[in-house]
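From the shared-data thread, chain only:
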Amino acid sequence: MWACNPAVTTPILESYSAAGPLFVQALQGFLAAQCALAGDHLWPDDATEAVLQDPNYDFIVVGAGSAGAVLANRLTEVADWKVLLVEAGGNPSLGTMVPQGFFSNIGGPDDWGYRPVPQEGACRSYATKSCAWPRGKTLGGCSAINGMYYVRGNKLDYDEWAAAGNHGWSYDDVLPYFKKSENFTGTLNEDTIPYHSTGGYLRVEDTKPIHDIEKIIIKAATEIGIETLYDINGSNQMGITRALSTTKDGVRHSTAFAFLSPIKQRKNLHVIKNTMATKILFKPNTRDVESVVLNKNGKELVVKAKKEIIISAGAINSPQLLMLSGIGPRKHLEDLNIDVKVDLPVGENLQDHLYIPTYFTLPGDKDTLGLIQIAGAFAEYITHNTGIFSDTSPHKVITFYNTTDPKASSPDVQFHQLFMPPNSYNFLDIFSVHGMNEDLIKKFRELNENNHLLVMALVLLRPKSKGRIILKSTDHNDHPLIYANYLQEQDDVLTVIRGFKQYALKFEDTDAFKQIGLKQQWIEIEACKMFETDSDDFLECVARETTFSLYHPVGTVKMGPDGDSSAVVDPELKVKHVKGLRVVDASIMPVITRGNTNAPTIMIAEKAGDMIKAFWSKGHTEL
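Structure, as tokens:
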């Protein structure tokens, strides 16, 4: 993306001067609008020169994503603390700012582009036999490329963490940190006031208007006995609603936009971009961390931390950095000739939310979303921040349901409902961006050619199947090996089958769907043709063929109390048996939350910020 400054834009405009003043004026407005959305002026400057001049900081935060950007903000509230924030990517691109285009970030310049090791029992219909695992590689991390759903999970998630010995992590303990971040624009009344707040950095919007198809989905759900809710982040999570979103006035509100842009001029914050942290160094003959090795354009820099190094690189990169630094499973590290500093189960306990789609079709005008319409809508968005690109609607409807007890207070499945006009693949080809095989890409396009397409995706919230992450080599440029192990436990398959039968497959028979002609349909998969449609065997086959990740990997640097041999960090997020090192991101979750993981990750960073401030206010000497 071109930089937003007159020295650059003037030659661009002059090159079009022959086209006439009106065209130049229009182009100037278009370029200015792009600047306003995603210009370099929005973000903190790169601090490479400052780091070279004085590579000494109180705190070094590795990763400027959903957690790291929040933590950098909160730590620099202490004026005497000098903080370095290290980011492997650069400034967010224009494409990340457009709410309706969130799927288009998969495989783009701001995505790490991870894929797990192929497995026999899942992701079979991908060209590589491996699911897409997009992760954000830019300021804001995954919050800059995700679906912007603001979902906190279930109260029981956090009470279970606390019951396992993680004191201070119960729902009552963490609720204030969800509220601390929040600038809520929805309805505040006696039901919502206990759970929401205004004045925080992060905009959480209840956007209007409600799309007609969203109303129809919610109406159909009530016919099959699903309760309609205003907000699943309050007293009750069980039911159907339009999700709140992390957007602001038609633009994605990532943690970079929310927490870094407002403080970009803080003198005690330095941000170094396009820079990989490759190793944590220890003081000689101790387990006290001292510095971080950074790689910037192929050159190594060593930066020292007087107080702490905090890794916030996410559930893939955080364990990778720990293991490269000698913190991890002894045998695995020794097999790679890495000097073992601390033997800990880093990389284990990997959990992710998978989803399986089914489809409902409704005949429609094939020109509804052709290339001309897309171009016009994008121009409207760039110049005015309005139109279909300015919101995630009509994809906002989400449902939480328990397949073993519909009256339970916690769910085991979630449903995302996405609605795509005819020819939507011109703008968003879900199967192509995820890397499905050519046969399924063709069939998806044919299904969408002359049909509106409602994609109803079942999400497995509490998978019993767990995976692991290990190093491929000692080269930091090599992606680690990810073993997702989806659907290894048959109980997970049975939950998927129950979810489809008790929820998705009932919608075709509702009056709401019948009145407009929405009909349930599966995309034909060669491997599943032998089974009777909607049978248990068929549903299992579909699940194993068209497995998708919901992009929520967690748990690889597990939090646990003393005595928990499966834990890597303690409840204060300090790496066990190491001094001066914490991990603050989704990797510390002992068990994955029942819902989208971005809001919980932000909460984790908010709580960590207070824990770090409290620790250093008690008179601790510098490490």
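The longest strand covers residues 299-311.
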